[in-house]
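Before drawing any conclusions, I looked closely at one protein's amino acid sequence and its backbone structure tokens, quoted below without any editing.
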Amino acid sequence: MSRPSKPELWSDFDGTAVEIVSKFNPRNWSKYPLAGIPGYEEFLHGVLNEDVRIAGIISRRPNIAPRRYVTARSVGKLGLDRQLFIHPSQIVLTGSEEGKARHVVERSRDVRVGIIDDKPHRIGLALLDALLQEVPPTSEDGQLIALGVVSHGKSEDYTGRLMEAVGESDRDVTLSSNGDYPTFVGPSSNRFRLSVVQLDPYSVEAGNQFAHQIHAL
């Protein structure tokens, strides 16, 4: 069975869309107003330009009223609610990395999925564990996910931690490549590919490039 829908992108929030401040800073307790990361909106428009749908925000923030409120306020403060995250249903708070992963993996049953995150060593392991628990997919291609690693000072270290953790574990995956990027391939009973893509600093061009990687899965 082929995939009829266009690929989609999900975005983490803290450290990916908005800056992180110290846990002891009162602004971090309220989660509002947090400064947006420069170039983030331009990156998303670059993804859109290449026929990938901006599906929404996927966060490990707890799904409780105060966090829903402050997250929506931050999205509105940044102006992202006017073109990109128009519907409240596009802001998904899951309460954990495992919840984020389950949501993304569920979406990947039907479409190619990209997710951008600033901590690939955490979400990457959660994605692999969720994929390995999946029933066989309906698509002959299997489930296809591109994990875009946000460019910052610890990007390479975090990606290295992911690769090391998988290598030292007993997860039933093999390491292949998709172009220049490492790709985890699932067993025949699961059929999935998870590519780990190092993003360039946010820009329209970086968004174009990541969209191409999603299409190429």
Observations:
- The first strand starts at residue 8 and ends at 11.
- DSSP finds seven helices and eight strands in the chain.
- The chain has a mean pLDDT of 91.
